[in-house]
Every structure is written in C-alpha cells, then in structure tokens.
Design goal:
The structure holds 2 protein chains of 2 kinds.
Chain A lengths: L1 H17 L1 H37 L2 E6 L5 H13 L3 E7 L1 H12 L4 H5 L8 E6 L5 H14 L3 E5 L2 H42 L2 H10 L3 H45 L10 H31 L2
Antiparallel strand pairs in A: 1-3, 1-4, 2-3
Chain B lengths: L1 E8 L8 E8 L4 E5 L6 H8 L7 E6 L2 E2 L8 H5 L2 E4 L11 H10 L5 H14 L15 H13 L5 E5 L7 H16 L3 E5 L3 H6 L3 E6 L2 E2 L1
Helix pairs in contact in B: 3-4, 3-5, 4-5
Classes of the chains: A alpha+beta, B alpha/beta.
C-alpha cells in the first residue's frame, strides 16, 4: 500500500512534469472559470452586506401625543416588548428629541438656538426582525395602534419598504439562477478541458494498457492530477479575486463609504470560500474520473 | 500455449474478418503468420491479447479463456504477452531508456530492478549506445529494436509481432528476424506476422496462412 502510494505520487509528479503545457492549460482554465465564479460571489457578498445594512434601517417611528398618560405609555411599552417580531424598542422623550435636534442644527441656525419652545413630540422607534413578513407585521401593529389613543402619527415608509422587500426576493432568485447557470457552465468547461488533457495522452494510456497496467494504476495518478489541477486553479482564482478586492478597497473605499453610509467592502464570505475549494477538488476528481473511465471503456476492448 | 477453436469475428460487413478458424501454437514454438493485407492477421493478434472482442469460438492463451476475462482483469493476460507493431508505437517525448523503463513503471516494478532490466534488454538488442536518444533520432530498424526491447522487458511468455519488418529494408529486416530467432531460442513463443516471402524463406518455421479470414 505504501509503495503503491509512493509510486502513484511519483507517477503523478512525473506526469505533470512531462505534460507541463497541457497541465498548465487545464489549471489556467480552472482558474479563469473560478475567477468568474469568485467575482460573482464577491459582488454577491457585498450586495448582501449592503442590503443587510439597508434592511436594518427599516423602522417604525410612532410619534406620541404630548398629553399621553403614563398608563398608556406603559401599555404601549408592554405591547412592543411582547411583540415577537420586534427586534428593538427605543424611546425618545420630548426633551431628548429636542436636545438631539438642537445639537444637530444649532451651529447652522441661530434661530434654533434661540428658540425656547419645544415643538417636537416624544416617540418610539421600533426595529423589526428581518424576514419576508416584516412589512405585514409592521402593518398589523400600525392598524392596532391606530385604534388606540395617545398616538399622534406613525411613519414607516410603506412604499419604500414594499419595494425593498420585493427587490430582496428578486435578488435572491437572480443570484440563485445566475449562480446555477454559471456553475453548470464551469463544470462543462472544466470537464472538457480535463477530457482534452487525457485525450492528449491517449498514446501513453494505450501503451499502458498494452503492457498490462491495471485500471487502478492508470486511473489514480490521472485523478490525482485532476485534483491538483482543481486545487491549483481555485487557489490562483482566489488570489486574483483577493487582488481585485484589495485594489478596489484601496482605490474606492472612501467613495463607497460615502455613497453607502459606511459600508465596508467585503471579501468572499467563508460560506462560499471553502465550498469553492471543495468544488475545485470535486470537479477535478469527478471530471478526470468520468473522462478516464470513458477513455478506458472505449480503448480497452472494442 | 495458444489454442483457437472455430473463431469468428465480423465487423458488421457481409464478409467476416475471421471465418471459423482453428489452430494451436505450442509453448516455445516459432510460427509465421502470413497472408495479404486485410487477411485478418492484425485482428487475430488483437483478439489474442484481448484488444478486440469476438463473435463466436474459443480462444485459450496459457489455458485462460480470453473471451471470459473482464476488462479489469485483462492486465494479467497482457503481462504474459509482448506485442510489437509495424509502426513501433514508441513515445516520442521519452528517450530510448525511458520508453523501456515506462513499460515496467506502469506495472509497478521497483526502480532499482527497472534500471538493471532496462540495461540488460538494451544490451540484448544492441542499443546501449542509443539509450539517451529520442525515437525520432533513430533509424527505422533501431526504433523497431527499441519496441522489441520494450516488449521483452517484462519477460512475457508469448511475443506477437505484427509485421515488425513492414517498414524496414530487407537487410535490416533479416537482422530483426534473427533477433526474434534469438528470443525464441530463449524459450519464448513467437508468432511473427509478415507477408514478405524473403522473410518466410529465410527461416524454416511452421506457416499459418490467412486469406479472407480463413486459414488455408
């Protein structure tokens, strides 16, 4: 077993050395294919991060009547705390609202600084848990509150949230569809490249069969070579994507922060990084296994 | 020993490539297989080393029924048969030494043994001085000697030579034939396919003549 392994590794190394050009071509094809997939994941990761930032900003602001009773205030607080769809509840009293307002605008207008009257109402700011039913839950609460007393007005940008939720649904389907099509395309390209690489060695394989090499001793080094091609290609692809990521970050981070309110440029997330490497191994493995099986089947005994 | 009984092979046309042929070759025998081009010589060789399926009949090589061996187990049969072709089938990117070593590497012969055996077999075909040359740097006769060395290196019991002198001039052809004589004297069974009368006249061996798929 040890000698078989050593022999297989040695044969794989010699095969790669002897067929450098074809090997490098296969690695390059895998690298290009996975770079395309990786760039897609990079866009996906950043779009997701951006949407998540935006999504967190969705809130329901409830402005309270100036004369609201303490009992009603406590009842409202309990209502919000008991609602399982609400993520966070933030109360802003009239005084803090006014203080915030003044600190924001005092330097810009002398009028605000000199004003003794506080025209701002107290409010509750509610953030809802993310999910496809979020808008429904907001609407339910709004309808419930409308019937009660002590509420001056409510604000939650219904149209905007509705469009945003629809966009999120569309985007998820879009990513799934594009990712699927891209994945199938990559498998076809890579398996054909491996097929060509095996075909380029048909004379060698024919000779191996002729002198009595076992199927296992022919297959294993070629499969191992396919796996090395897969890992090498994915490694190069990830390196390229990291370079692109660093370049964009260095060149455009400032502009991106100002456009997208402090959003940081993300690299491909762990949940895509490891599957990409695994996909490289599997595609190399399965691609070469299928190709070599087809070849042996056609060559062995017509 | 090779035993062939009522062998029939067709490729889909109306005329069979091999039409109900029977013969046997004893261990250590030298047999000439002759006949015009298209007579079925190459097909017969392919069947003997398990490179081709056949329709009917029975083929036994050293007591093993060739038709019953699965593709995965053909290697065992092939390790006992050395095959030589008219077009040599050498790997052009490997040197003479590497071509011969390759035949041993792929069946798992240890590296030390490979070096010794390759050197011995190169000596027996008189090509030690060309060990680092590439096939395309050699003459036709030299390339054929490399192919013979490669067929011999794993010490098979049977040698199938399919028109090994077909591309060579008469003088070189006779030298190659003498090499096969030597191999036969060492105890190997040799089936030598040729349609050259000069070859057939040069040595007195049993003759199997194929014509239109039949032994005549």
């Amino acid at each position: 077993m040890v000698s078989f392994l050593a022999n297989t590794l040695r044969t794989t190394g010699l095969n790669i050395k002897a067929n450098r050009q074809v090997f490098m071509l296969s690695v390059a094809t895998v690298a290009v294919a996975f770079s395309i997939l990786g760039l897609f994941f990079l866009v996906h990761a950043n779009l997701n991060a951006l949407l998540s930032t935006w999504s967190k900003q969705v809130q329901l602001v409830i402005y309270l009547d100036d004369g609201i009773s303490n009992t009603r205030l406590k009842a409202l607080k309990k209502l919000f705390d008991d609602n399982e769809h609400i993520d966070s509840v933030h109360f802003i009293s009239r005084d803090s609202a006014w203080k915030n307002f003044k600190s924001t605008f005092a330097e810009k207008s002398g009028f605000v600084a000199g004003l003794d009257l506080n025209p701002l109402p107290a409010s509750y700011s509610l953030r809802f848990k993310e999910g496809l039913d979020r808008l429904k839950h907001i609407r339910q609460l709004v309808d419930e509150l409308r019937e009660g007393e002590g509420i001056e007005s409510m604000e939650y940008g219904e149209k905007w949230i509705s469009k945003f939720e629809n966009f999120m649904i569309f985007l998820r389907f879009f990513i799934l569809a594009v990712g699927g099509i891209l994945g199938v395309g990559l498998v076809l390209i890579i398996s054909n490249t491996i097929k060509l690489s095996i075909f380029s060695r048909r004379e060698e394989i024919e000779l191996m069969l002729l002198v009595g090499a076992t199927h296992r001793s022919i297959k294993v080094p070629l499969i191992l070579e396919g796996v090395v091609q897969g890992i090498g290609g994915v490694g190069i692809a990830l390196g390229l994507i990291k370079l692109v990521h660093l370049y964009i970050k260095l060149q455009f981070q400032g502009s991106l922060e100002s456009i997208f309110r402090g959003a940081d440029l993300q690299f491909i997330t762990q949940s895509f990084l490891w599957p990409m490497l695994l996909a490289g191994v599997i595609i190399g493995w399965v691609g070469s296994l299928i190709s070599i099986n087809q070849f042996l089947h056609s060559e062995d005994r017509r | 020993m090779i035993q062939v009984f009522n062998l029939i092979k067709t490729y889909g046309g109306s005329t069979p490539a091999l039409a109900d042929i029977s013969f046997s070759v004893k261990d250590g025998e030298f047999v000439f297989l002759t006949g015009p081009s298209g007579a079925g010589k190459t097909t017969l060789f392919k069947i003997l080393f398990g490179g081709e399926k056949y329709d009917r009949g029975q083929v036994l090589v050293n007591g093993v029924n060739v038709g019953k061996i699965s593709e995965e187990n053909l290697f065992a049969l092939r390790r006992n048969i050395g095959v030589i072709f008219q077009d040599y089938k050498l790997l052009s990117k490997k040197t003479v030494f590497e071509n011969i070593s390759f035949a041993q590497e792929v069946i798992g012969v240890p590296s030390k043994t490979i070096r010794t055996r390759t050197w011995e077999v190169l000596k027996s075909v008189g090509l030690t001085s060309k060990k680092d040359a590439y096939p395309l740097q050699l003459s036709g006769g030299e390339q054929q000697r490399v192919a013979i060395a490669r067929a011999l290196v794993n010490n098979p019991k049977i040698i199938l030579a399919d028109e090994p002198t077909g591309n060579l001039d008469p003088e070189i052809s006779l030298k190659i034939l003498n090499l096969f004589e030597k191999i036969n004297h060492e105890g190997k069974t040799v089936i030598f396919a040729t349609h050259s009368l000069e070859m057939l006249r040069a040595q007195n061996h049993r003759l199997l003549t194929l014509n239109r798929g039949k032994i005549i």
